[in-house]
C-alpha cells in the first residue's frame, strides 16, 4: 500500500472529505465530518484506522505491522505499517471496516443525507 492508493480508496467512498485539521502533515479522511483514516505526509508508511475493540486486539496479536495508534484512543484505533508483509487487500479491507464503523455510528439523519449524495 502507498499513500496514493490509500487516498484513492478513501476519496472514492461516499461522503468523504480530506483535510489537514491538525497541522500540514497529518492528512485526515472523514466521512460526514467524522474521522476514519489518518496518515502522515512526511511518513506515509503508517496509517491510523478505526477498529472494533475486539478486532483491534486480534489484529495486533496476529500482525507485527499492527499496533495501537499513536496519539489516538488505542482501544478503538490501530496504526498499520505498510512496510511489512501485509497485502494491499488486507489494508483495504481494514480501511473499509473503519469507514463502515464510522458510518454506522452516524446519526440516522446524517446517514440519510449521505445516501442522498
- Give the helix/strand class: alpha+beta
CATH architecture: Alpha-Beta Complex
Mean pLDDT metric:
95
What is the CA-CA span between the terminal residues?
Answer: 28 Å
Strand tally? 6
Give the overall shape, derived from the CA principal axes. globular
Low-confidence stretches: none
Main β sheet profile: 6 strands, antiparallel
Radius of gyration computed on alpha carbons: 14 Å
Helix content: 25-40%
Number of domains: 1
How would you spell out the order of helices and strands? Answer: HEEEEHEEHH
Which fold name corresponds to the CATH topology?
Answer: Aspartate Aminotransferase, domain 1
Instruction: Please write the CATH class name.
Output: Alpha Beta
InterPro entries: YjbR, YjbR-like_sf, YjbR/MT2646/Rv2570-like
Protein name: MmcQ-like protein
Organism: Solitalea canadensis (strain ATCC 29591 / DSM 3403 / JCM 21819 / LMG 8368 / NBRC 15130 / NCIMB 12057 / USAM 9D) (Flexibacter canadensis)
Pfam families: YjbR
Topology at a glance:
Blueprint: H1 3-11, E1 16-19, E2 26-31, E3 34-40, E4 46-50, H2 53-62, E5 66-68, E6 77-81, H3 88-105, H4 108-115
Antiparallel strand pairs: 1-2, 2-3, 3-4, 4-6, 5-6
Give short descriptive properties of this protein:
4 helices; six-stranded antiparallel β-sheet; single chain; alpha+beta; 38% helix; Aspartate Aminotransferase, domain 1; 117 residues
Amino acid at each position: 500500500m502507498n499513500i496514493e492508493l490509500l487516498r484513492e480508496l478513501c476519496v472514492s467512498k461516499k461522503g468523504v472529505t480530506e483535510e489537514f485539521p491538525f497541522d500540514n502533515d497529518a492528512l485526515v479522511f472523514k466521512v460526514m465530518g467524522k474521522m476514519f483514516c489518518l496518515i502522515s505526509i512526511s511518513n506515509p508508511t503508517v496509517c491510523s484506522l478505526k477498529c472494533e475493540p475486539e478486532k483491534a486486539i486480534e489484529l495486533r496479536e496476529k500482525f507485527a505491522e499492527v499496533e495501537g495508534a499513536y496519539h489516538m484512543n488505542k482501544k478503538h484505533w490501530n496504526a498499520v505499517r505498510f512496510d511489512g508483509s501485509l497485502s494491499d487487500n488486507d489494508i483495504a479491507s481494514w480501511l473499509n471496516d473503519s469507514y463502515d464503523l464510522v458510518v454506522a455510528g452516524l446519526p440516522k439523519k446524517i446517514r440519510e443525507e449521505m445516501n442522498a449524495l
